[in-house]
Specification:
mainly alpha
């Protein structure tokens, strides 16, 4: 992304502004994540990718469905689904770019290559382990480039699916209920063991 902006600044400064704004937003978000989530609480072994794609996500979804907390469980299911939908969107867009280049027998423009760059930036998300999915700041770190790439792609394409993904990410981020756990009826009764 930085190389695209540098090239645009060298060629035409006016055309660089639409590239620069999303980059600044993305950079500021990344700096915030680094400062706010500086100390991971997952063991170093958990940071290794899973050899089987989507296995960690499936295990996380199973664990969330078995939990007794309504609000955070619903939020986490939606967020995991969104984190998997974003790379899927980039896969589809990248395949369309490859198909266009094959039929046109030409290389895509810089803007046309953005979905491929975006896919490379979030390619690790399907390979996250259950330990990383269990710790929200960990998978938020891995998904942070997705936010920047969504904004950057939207600056040049105005795609409706892209807008829906951006809005879903904003809404789920702003309505994160993890701080206020909502117990279910199962947790309403406390059983005291006999003495």
């Amino acid at each position: 992304m930085a190389s695209v902006i540098a090239l645009e600044l060298l060629l035409r400064r006016r055309r660089a502004l639409p590239w620069l704004i999303p980059f600044v937003v993305f950079g500021a978000w990344h700096v915030y994540l680094r400062l706010a989530l500086a100390s991971p609480v997952v063991p170093s072994d958990a940071a290794r990718p899973s050899p089987i794609p989507l296995l960690g996500a499936a295990q996380k979804i199973h664990a969330v469905l078995a939990s007794d907390y309504i609000g955070p469980a619903n939020w986490e299911l939606l967020f995991v689904a969104l984190m998997l939908a974003i790379p899927l969107y980039f896969v589809v867009r990248s395949l369309l770019v490859v198909d266009w280049a094959r039929h046109a027998r030409a290389l895509p423009t810089r803007e046309g290559l953005l979905p491929v760059v975006a896919l490379a930036s979030v390619a690790t998300v399907p390979f996250l382990t259950k330990d990383l999915w269990n710790y929200i700041p960990s998978y938020a770190r891995y998904g942070a480039p997705a936010a920047g790439m969504l904004v950057l792609l939207y600056a040049v394409s105005r795609d409706r699916a892209l807008r829906a993904l951006m809005l879903a990410l904003i809404v789920l981020t702003l309505t994160n209920p993890v701080v206020a756990l909502l117990p279910t009826a199962n947790d309403a009764s406390v059983q005291i063991p006999p003495k």
